[in-house]
Design goal:
single chain, alpha/beta, TIM Barrel, 15 helices, 8 strands
């Protein structure tokens, strides 16, 4: 690629290799920048939408007040749910040109089901089907919990383009891949098309790293500190190899960025990288060479020490490291669900206390009169 056509390292990544990248946010400003550098998707979740509402509140204040005034019987959670949808839909609108250009194979916006539903297959499936109907380019996120895996199969069968989230391990990735295949095969057996379906399996590689660091500190485990940032990379690369061998139709996606290895080590793979705006700009200003590294193995010594010393890495790395039932109690799962659920409630609090029941003890600002 010539320097005249190379806009940035991320643009070169997606132009020279089958590796795609998404914007890890549905922020209008951030997604616009990402699309300019080759992004073909975006994502949202309660934490992301909470951040978007803080960053781009001026874009949403009037609409929130309008929803409250027009729907006098709605609760704060009702209003929040509608705002959550509309922020995601704005991202989907920005991606429609990509969706059309790519004939529906790319250009989707991922919206997350209510994280509090992680134990309820029926509620997750019902909401997934609803979210999938909101726009032609919606992708719906469901958690890789024991019940979430069942919902992933059912939602796939019902034609939803799923994105499995709250996933950090090889066993979860395999369970997701198998659930998606079962859903697709059920559709095909009944004569329904799967041609336009683009299921995605997320591995939150940064949160894999985070959890391994937490347990080494918590349990007084000494390992080479230079090995810890390779935990998520090792898990993702192993999952990618398994997906290729088994022919899973769900596509792997790396999320939760902590360092440049979560980009540079995956270049060249037929995978998706969902990258936060901060990391997009760091990568685009970096001197890291853009070259294929996906097939480069993680040093055997790194994997051996992590497997030998850290039981939770074995759970994450080994194909049979956990049963499906054990997904729910894995530390990274618990930490992430707690965070997502807390963000969901924080979004509701913002709607309630900033818009529906603002504090009467605080004097409202007097706006200047414009002549």
């Amino acid at each position: 690629m010539s320097e005249t056509t190379r806009r940035s390292p991320l643009h070169e990544t997606v132009s020279a290799y089958p590796t795609d990248f998404w914007n890890d946010s549905c922020s209008v400003e951030e997604l616009t920048y990402a699309i300019e550098h080759g992004a073909v998707g975006a994502t949202s979740n309660p934490t992301i939408v909470e951040q978007v509402l803080r960053q781009e509140r001026n874009l949403w204040e009037d609409r929130i007040h309008e929803l409250i005034e027009r729907n006098t019987s709605w609760s704060d959670e009702d209003v929040m749910a509608k705002v959550f949808e509309e922020i995601a839909l704005k991202g989907a609108e920005l991606l429609l040109p990509v969706f059309d250009r790519e004939n529906g194979r790319k250009g989707r916006l991922s919206i997350q089901t209510n994280p509090s539903y992680y134990r309820n297959v029926a509620k997750m499936t019902e909401q997934a089907v609803y979210y999938g109907s909101l726009a032609p380019n919606m992708q719906v996120k469901l958690p890789a919990t024991s019940q979430g895996v069942a919902a992933i199969e059912e939602a796939t069968y019902r034609g939803v383009n799923i994105n499995a989230t709250v996933s950090f391990t090889v066993p979860q990735a395999i369970a997701i891949g198998e659930a998606v295949e079962r859903g697709l095969q059920r559709r095909e057996a009944e004569g329904f098309s799967t041609d336009n379906m683009t299921p995605v399996t997320t591995i939150m590689v940064g949160r894999t790293d985070d959890w391994i660091q937490v347990v080494t500190t918590r349990d007084d485990i000494i390992v080479n500190p230079q090995y810890l940032p390779w935990a998520g990379v090792a898990v993702f690369k192993k999952a990618s190899k398994i997906y290729g061998e088994r022919g899973f139709r769900s596509r792997l996606l790396a999320a939760a960025y902590r360092h440049h290895l979560h980009w540079s080590e995956f270049i060249g793979g037929n995978v998706i990288l969902t990258i936060p705006a901060k990391w997009q700009k760091l990568i685009n200003s970096s001197m890291v060479e853009v070259k294929a590294r996906m097939d480069d193995p993680v040093a055997p010594g790194i994997i051996a020490e992590l497997r030998d010393r850290v039981p939770d890495f074995r759970k994450a790395f080994d194909e049979d490291g956990m049963t499906v039932e054990e997904f729910d109690s894995y530390g990274a799962t618990v930490r992430t669900l707690r965070g997502f659920i807390a963000s969901y409630h924080e979004l509701t609090r913002v709607i309630r206390e900033d818009f529906m029941l603002p504090n009467p003890d605080i004097k409202a600002p007097v706006l200047p009169i414009v002549s």
